[in-house]
Amino acid sequence: MIVLTGSTGGIGRAALQTLLSEKLVPVSELRISAYNTAAIPTAVRETGIEIRKGNLYEPSTLVESYSGAEVLFLVSFPSMGEERYKLHRNAIDAAKAAGVRHIIYTSLSFCGGAEGNTSVAQVAQAHLLTERYLKDSGMTYTILRMASYSHLWNNYAGFLKLDAAPDVVQEAVLPNDGLEHWANRAELGEATARVIANWQNYINRTLNFTGPELLTGVDIIKKYMKHTGRKVNVRVLPVEEAIAWHVKNGSVPPEQASFLENWASWHTAISLGEKAFLDPTLEQLLGRKPKTIDDQAADIFSASHGLDTKDLVELGLILGGTPQTTFCDLLGSSEHIVGALHEYSQRPVFRSRNPSLRSRDELYQRKLRDMLVSNALPKLCDKTFKVFVERVFPFEQIVQAHQLLESGSSKGKIIMKIE
Q1: What highest taxon heads this organism's lineage (predicted)?
Q2: Alpha helical stretches, state H, 22-54
Q3: Which residue, among 8, 24, 33, has the nearest Cα to 193 in the 3D structure?
Q4: What are phi and psi of 87, to 5 degrees?
Q5: Mean predicted confidence (pLDDT) in 144-154
Q6: Which of 30, 170, 178, 244 has minimal CB crowding within 10 Å?
Q7: Those residues with Cβ within 8 angstroms of residue 54's Cβ, 6 or more apart along the chain or in another chain
Q8: Measured on CA atoms in the order 125, 131, 135, 138, is the torsion positive or negative?
């Protein structure tokens, strides 16, 4: 039995789809572990795959979720803070207690290659701690060090506004630069599925999924200009100067400025050559050449990649709800909402404007999350929480709706009614 985690996320979803569509492993030998089992798509459920609840914040649920399995596919938790390592330890300890023999873990491809075990990138630290803990656990392991996702290129390129007017000349300021490998996330998930299906061939190995080419941050920005016709002035500055520039120019909200040091450390690691290598493993597992940045240009350089998930307080409307729909209606139960608050509030996402919960520092996020759970959650679940609607417009008045929104005077939700 192989237990799969992260099955509704980018890598985990692609891995699961490949396992099922290509019948790499019999469905009877697969199990999904998820904190929100209601989020598993109907099409996946209809395959007959076993689904159990497993919440990284509740270790007791993990032992039951992993019980009877030989292999655990552990997708790293989406956080850049200390919490990530703590939750990974919960999963590893629970797996050992449940009798799991082998863990496949998704890490990051810093460190200069599969043999490297140090990095100056702050984002890599929880991964390296997890790798060491896993190796010392007594279980066998496979560590998959993933390339940077191609669609997240703008996080590295200095937070360009992809939806800016075509004639606007933007500034891209990078804190150091260097060669780096990039890969398509869906292809990384596909390759991961092939490792899962043949895990016995990768016992106690660290694999690097690097993608097909090495590019600097400046190289990618040049490709962005080539494919879109937009103009960007690019500068590579020392770390302190680059951070000061981004703070001064409001690249991120003021309350998130402290995170720029973490962000800059990625670039420092890259400038030191931590990602300046290519590995054939991804291509070998796919059986074809992985996609290049140019292959994905129409998608990753489009203005839609400048959009971001809205605040948690807007989650109900985003998921298709109405002002009368509660979070519990959408997510299934209060425990699912607590898990969602934990997950979403711990994901640092860079925003160039319209600050949201996910753009704030971790201390702010945690305090707000705790307030939501203790004060708002009961009202959400007993349906006494009301969303204030400023005004409902017929679709024909969309211009007026936008004018009200842009005026900054609205205090509630603005809803467009489509007959």
Answers
A1: Eukaryota
A2: 42-45
A3: 24
A4: -70, -35
A5: 94
A6: 244
A7: 5, 33, 34, 35, 61, 62, 64, 65, 66
A8: positive
Crossing angle, helix 239-248 and helix 260-271, to 10 degrees? 140
Each residue of 167-195: pLDDT tens digit?
999 999 999 999 999 999 999 999 999 99
Residue with the two structure tokens 């809803």: 415
What percentage of the chain reaches a pLDDT higher than 70? 77
pTM of the model: 0.74
pLDDT digits (tens, 9 = 90+) for 52-70: 999 999 999 999 999 999 9
What is the distance between the alpha carbons of residues 103 and 134, in angstroms, rounded to a whole number? 8
Give the mean pLDDT of 368-389.
62
What pLDDT score does 351 carry?
A: 39
What H or E segment, with its residue span, contains residue 93?
helix 82-97
Q: 2 - beta bridge partners?
A: 30, 71
Burial class (CB in 10 A: 0-12, 13-18, 19+), 312: buried
Q: Exposure string (b/e) for 2-12, b if CB count within 10 Å is 16 or more? A: bbbbbbbbbbb
Residue 208: beta bridge partners?
A: 145
Q: Average pLDDT for residues 142-156, to the nearest whole number? A: 94
> Nearest-CA neighbor of 393 among 401, 404, 383?
401
Q: What single-letter amino acid sits at 110? A: F
Answer for the pair 265, 192: CB distance below 8 angstroms, yes or no: no
The number of angstroms, rounded, from the C-alpha of 239 to the middle of its chain's C-alpha atoms is 25
Using CA atoms, how far apart are residues 166 and 169, in angstroms rounded to an integer? 8
Highest mean pLDDT among 109-113, 160-164, 291-295, 305-309: 291-295
According to the 3-state scheme, what is the secondary structure of 287-318? CCCCCCCHHHHHHHCCHHHHCCCCCHHHHHHH
Helix (H, G, I), strand (E, B) or coil at 156: helix
Strands, E, within 147-190: which ranges? Answer: 148-149, 170-175, 180-183
State the Cα–Cα distance between residues 114 and 273, nearest whole angstrom.
14
Which structure tokens are listed for 218?
């400046």
